Amino acid sequence: MAAALVSVAALPAAAADHARPHRARVEISTVQHGSPGRDDRSNRSLNRERAQLTNPTRHTVDLDGWTLSDEDGHSYTFHHYRLAPQSSVRVHTGKGRDTRGDLYQNRRAYVWDDDRDTVTLRDSRGRTVDDYSWGHRRGGRR
């Protein structure tokens, strides 16, 4: 009889697990701070500074309203962009034409500090999804 009670009690919990909505998981996979080559503020140099986001899941993630920001308050907001399953997108600092794999902030100055900074990805509700740091005592991911 005890075994029957355990299995009946476990059934609703298992059913509840399947009813949970999918939670989006996107990672900041790399950040190229400090544009390689001369820092001459040319558009080519600005676009070498970039952050790459990766969606390792099997579900498309709607990034509309999500933000990518640094410690100094520079912020980029995603508009009408969906990141396909198991794919990446590069967010460049300079100007360019947005594609499925490359987005552009259309800035005329560098964003990520060379010596130390933290890039933070937040969802449309302002919740931190991921961050990526360098130059701090611990270095790397926080």
**What is the CA–CA distance across the termini?**
50 Å
CATH level 3 topology: Immunoglobulin-like
The CATH C-level class name: Mainly Beta
> Are there runs of 5+ residues with pLDDT below 50, and where?
1-22
Question: SSE order in H/E notation?
Answer: HEHEEEEEEEEE
Spatial shape: globular
Task: Give the strand order of the largest sheet, numbering strands 1, 2, ... along the chain.
Answer: 1-2-7-8
Number of domain units: 1
What would you say the CATH architecture is?
A: Sandwich
Percentage of β-strand residues: 25-35%
Main sheet summary:
4 strands, mixed
Average pLDDT taken over every residue: 85
DSSP summary: helix tally: 2
Structural class, by secondary structure, is: alpha+beta
Describe this entry's structure for a reader:
The protein contains 2 helices and 10 strands. It is of the alpha+beta class. Strand 4 (67-69) and strand 5 (75-77) form a beta hairpin. Mean pLDDT is 85; it is low at 1-22.
In short:
The protein has a single domain (about 25-135), classed as Lamin Tail domain (Immunoglobulin-like, Sandwich). It is built from two helices and ten strands.
Considering the chains and any ligands shown, give keywords for the structure.
142 residues, alpha+beta, Immunoglobulin-like, 4-stranded mixed β-sheet, 4-stranded antiparallel β-sheet, 2 helices, disordered N terminus
